[in-house]
Design brief:
heterodimer; A: mainly beta; four-stranded antiparallel beta sheet; 11 strands; B: mainly beta; six-stranded mixed beta sheet; five-stranded antiparallel beta sheet
């Protein structure tokens, strides 16, 4: 499967600031996704990062709060803007890897964000 | 509303026994089914995928799919303490790349 890295692995930020999280894949992938996982909870899809076009956001998530870039097929960034303590969470990048006729999703190591 | 249901647990199983994890889904059009393992503080790791009715075995893991009854299960044979983790079930329809996630079942293997 693709090897996925994320930076930073963790950060502690002040309320009102912004943080950009990077996701790098070692091979070209069509589909890249950004998830949030709050403590003790399952995964919530924030958006699909589309190469060359605007990201597709899920209900409850907006571009002004979570701007996403996807400049090529191996890289994406997610920015968490104007942060509040409610944004404290783990943010996960995932990619879809095509294996024959089947598509499987694999995750990066995650970014643990704490907002004070 | 597409839903995936899992018992949150914790499910406690003695070492060496079979752990059985279950997942039900609401959308009859679902075609792809996945089990992920997530250790505390780590990201989810894909351990099994299944696409057709029946059993699929990989080492100590067996995934079972029954589309008529809309459930998918994961069996872990000869359970080890290292199997202690949260197991997430995810389901996808062919026409929609999005995964619908269950809340996860916490599994504890007791030595």
């Amino acid at each position: 499967s693709a090897v996925i890295s994320q930076k930073p692995s963790r950060d502690i930020c002040q309320r009102g600031t912004s943080l950009t999280i990077q996701c790098q894949v070692d091979s070209q992938v069509t589909m890249m996704f950004w998830y949030r996982q709050q403590p003790g909870q399952s995964l919530t899809l924030i958006a699909t990062a589309n190469q060359g076009s605007e990201a597709t956001y899920e209900s409850g998530f907006v571009i002004d709060k979570f701007p996403i870039s996807r400049p090529n097929l191996t890289f994406s960034t997610l920015t968490v803007s104007n942060m509040s303590p409610e944004d404290s969470s783990i943010y996960l990048c995932s990619v879809e890897d095509h294996r024959g006729n089947n598509d499987e999703q694999f995750f990066g190591p995650g970014t643990r964000l704490t907002v004070l | 509303q597409k839903e995936v249901e899992q018992n949150s647990g914790p499910l406690s199983v003695p070492e060496g026994a079979i752990a059985s994890l279950n997942c039900t889904y609401s959308d009859r059009g679902s075609q792809s089914f996945f089990w992920y393992r997530q250790y505390s503080g780590k990201s989810p790791e894909l351990i099994m995928s299944i696409y057709s009715n029946g059993d699929k075995e990989d080492g100590r893991f067996t995934a079972q799919l029954n589309k008529a009854s809309q459930y998918v299960s994961l069996l872990i044979r000869d359970s080890q303490p290292s199997d202690s983790a949260t197991y997430l079930c995810a389901v996808r329809m062919d026409s929609n790349y999005q995964l619908i996630w269950g809340a996860g079942t916490k599994l504890i293997i007791k030595p």
